[in-house]
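=== RUN LOG ===
request id: a7f3
mode: sequence -> structure
chains: 1
length: 573
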Amino acid sequence: MEKNELSFGYVGTFQKTYYSDSYFFLDNAAYHEELALASVSLAGTFFYNYEKQEEKTWQSKDYWDKTGFSRQYFNEYCTKKAEIHSIGFGIASKTITSIDGTTYTLFSIPIRGADYGAENAGNVEIGDEGNAYGFQVAAEQVYEGLSSYIKSNGISGKAKFWTSGFSRGGAVANLFGGLLVERPLETLSYGEDDLYDYCFNSPSSAYLPEFQATSKTYKGIHSVLNLNDPFTYLIPRDIGFTRYGSVHYIPDRLTDVLYDERDRERMVKRYHYMDRGYEDAGLYNVDLWRFYDVGEKAAIKNNLPRDAIHPSMARFFQGFVDGFCKTDVDLTINRHTYSQFIEDGVRDFVASLFGANPKLAPFDLDELTDLIFNTPLFAMISNEVQQGHITDFIMDCGFLVSALYDKEGTDPEALEEIIASLEPLFGVLANLFKDRPDLSAQVFDRDNLLNTFHAHNMELTYNALLCCDSRFEEEPTKLNDGCYYALHLSPSTKISVYENGLGKEMFHYELGDMSESVLAGEKYADNSVDVFLPKDGRYAYTTDSSSISLYEVYPNRGKELIKEDMPQKGNIN
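=== RESULT ===
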């Protein structure tokens, strides 16, 4: 594949990527590292940190100029203040020619995934039916914008589409890709082979059966996700949502056997080269997660771990989503109960954070963490969770929200309405934390909370894709399906797990101590142990456990038993 190196503007700095028209004659059903890098770079040009509105489109214009795209268009929300259901996107086009001489109009359509203010409220609005409403209404705007663009420029004939987005932009790009193949544009000739849609770190937004979403119809849509990113869990599969097309995961310790051996160092090294001017831009915080022992009584009652080696954000988020959707006290969360009892309050609260409610005085989001942790109520709320005082927890959460808005410009009645609308959410959280005190102990840790969204940034995704690109690494890191094995051993006093390819011990447990282990693991109050095995490894294990089972853990979908009654010595390939 030809290189054609170029630099692209990203929040005032320049980074490296490649571009070639030949990318769009590749088999779109396959994931292509070169197209993924070009696509995340295109999405990166739609990140803004500029004070002047007229400066917000220069990065995309520069990228298009360098790659030969003309007829450049930006919709009004690229420079206008965002609203709850708005979306910013751009469109440009060029003529490309296949090896047999056939010409196509190639459309480049980046969708904004940052600096979008009130649109954050749309991210939590799923509606009663169909695809997630807050993302679907935005995708419809992109589709109508493209239709108008085609008409105004008199474009017809064979066409191909290159769409890219990060975060909210990725969720909208995913649904927009679905619209393109479900509703063919009248003057254009194209099919399912002509869509190249790459979505990064976005939540599920499509509401249809999994077999249909992953069918050949949507083969050109690819999502690249990070298991440690909470935004990718925002609308969980547990309540019926999925993504069009295929999904690929950035490796971490749970899914990559070479993570500690090689790949983490690569990502850290590349990540340190990027700096948006923030003090923490050089920190790779996805591995900095604290686990807390909740005590023998609580651990036995709720079958919870008492210790963890290499605890991860991914394990926390998977447990949180599973618990949130399955709590059966007072309000069981499914699509109907969320849209009827939770959605309005969350949407209005998030909108108010970004100044979209004129009756509530906005506050600087940079001050939010300090406001929370410096409020004595927060410590009270944490204690109430640990003691199972549900009513007090709900009431004091309301007091905390009131304290956050305690400033001039807030209408007391509007504040009371917001607090009342949030009470069902507070109730669900109270019951979740009562049932899973290990989750509350982790999330109420200041450092954990500060690091929670660290995996949700463009820099981390971009540099991870550099590590997965053969033009940058002789032996590139590989994306995976996000699944990993859990080897459950009960009871145990001694466990050794070797990786045959590396020829080294990866997990060591003896008399309750697993501090020398490379792989992640968890120890329970009943002396059972879970060892988490990346699927790309080849393992040999020995143990004194009398009960040994192997599970496969799926992203945002729980685990399934693969094999039980395993011998005390064996191999896992």
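=== NOTES ===
The longest strand covers residues 157-166.
Confidence is low (pLDDT under 50) at residues 276-281.
=== END ===
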